[in-house]
Design a protein that fits this description.
The protein is an all-alpha fold and about 80 residues long. The protein folds into two domains: about 1-40; about 45-84, no CATH class. The chain has helices at about 1-40, 65-84. The relative contact order is 0.08. The model has no long low-confidence stretch (mean pLDDT about 75).
């Protein structure tokens, strides 16, 4: 009788753990999507359109402010010119 009671309690605790894990993943996904929407609404960021040697980097720096991207571009192109 005590074994049955403990088994039922164990099943309840396992069920609550599974529900807690599912809630953790669902809330984490919602927080990530809300953060992504908040970051995309910033007006100081511009998409990057690079050409030449660094074309493979396009899209990876889409949330970087324009002034920082200009500085990065000038440094990278100076290294590119130094390679030739």
């Amino acid at each position: 009788m005590v074994d049955t009671l403990l088994t039922y309690l164990l099943h309840i605790f396992i069920g609550l753990d599974v529900l807690g894990a599912l809630a953790l993943f669902i809330l984490g996904a919602k927080r990530r999507s809300a953060r992504r929407l908040a970051n995309s609404s910033e007006t100081s960021c511009v998409p990057v359109h690079s050409t030449g040697f660094f074309a493979s980097l396009r899209g990876r720096f889409s949330s970087v402010p324009a002034r920082e991207m200009d500085r990065l571009r000038s440094v990278l192109y100076s290294f590119e010119e130094g390679l030739h």
